[in-house]
Every structure is written in C-alpha cells, then in structure tokens.
Design brief:
By secondary structure, this protein is α+β, with helices and mostly antiparallel strands. The chain has helices at 8-15, 24-38, 55-64, 157-171, 182-193; strands at residues 43-46, 73-76, 85-91, 108-112, 117-121, 127-130, 132-133, 138-139, 174-180.
Length: 195
Amino acid sequence: MTKLTIPPRTRIVHALAGGEPTKEQTISKCIRLYMERYYPEIRFRFDALGLAHTKAQAGQFAAINPWRAWPDFWMFWPNADGKTGLCLELKVAGTALRMKQGGTKYRILRHEKKRKAEWFEDPNDKRVKLTPKGADGKFMKPVFDTKIRKAGDWADAHLEEQAEMLAYLRTVGYVAEFAVGLEEALTIIENYINA
C-alpha cells in the first residue's frame, strides 16, 4: 500500500472543507474522490439500489436481488484484524438512527382527497408525500411502519432492516456499520484500513 505522509485526521479535515454534504449521493462522490486520491490500490463499490430508477429498472433489480437493505459502500480489502472487508450504510449528517423518546413516529398528517395523496411525518421532521402511481391509482408502499417504537429502538422499519443486514454481514467477516455524515464515514474507513 502507498505510504501516506499526511495524517488521517488532516486528510478528513481537507475532505470536509466544503462542509457536510446534505445528500447521500454527494457523500458517495466525496468518498470516491477520497479513496481514489489516498488509496488507489483498494477496490470498492457503491450499491446502486438506493438510486432513483424507472419502474422497469426497479422491477429488474428486485427480480435478481432477493435480499433488501444492502449497504451503500463496499470496500474489498482485508485488514490486520482479519476482517474480509468494510460495508457502510451511509446517512446524511443529523439523521436520527434511534428513537429519542417513545411513541408512534410515523403518522398520517393529512389526506388530500383531490390529489389522492397523504402526508406522513418521518423521524427527522421532514415530510414525505406519497402520490398515486400508475393507472390504477395505487399508492407507493411506504418503507416505514406505524408501530409504536420505544426510546432506543430503530427510528423506522427501513433502518431496522438495514441494521439486520449489517448484523448479518458482521457474522460473515465484514466490518459493517452505519456512517452518519461524511466525517464519520471517512473516520471509519481510516480506522479500518489502519487497524
């Protein structure tokens, strides 16, 4: 591996010069540039299932991928601790992974009969509007549930599903973690490589 003279923390600070990205896709691009600059010999990839696809593409991906919730970032590089590789589920900075207090986090805020749409509340206080899809007017299925979650539980069903996949990957030899924000992602990458 290339011997780097710049300490990891300094490299991370330089990568964050523009601030924390506000989109997962931007975090992915920043990680790509970071890896290509400092670790060109390490092979890595990003999972494309989290990107926006046409209905046909989504169907094709679903047909060949029996498991959901694969992590966004994969690095194929064994480390000194004997781990197979690194997997990261990327989230933007400030994303709440766990419930801070109990209660139903997702609930319908209002119905719009004219447009046949509903507004839902999500764990980060953003609104997600579900609109009809296709000629039949059926709604997109939300990736969250309406069960009551206690303080400390995963914030929604999708995060819970992702956490289960990360736990599985840990059992088969990967380091698999959530990374909330670019800084945390790069710190985990550096800790893994330099273990």
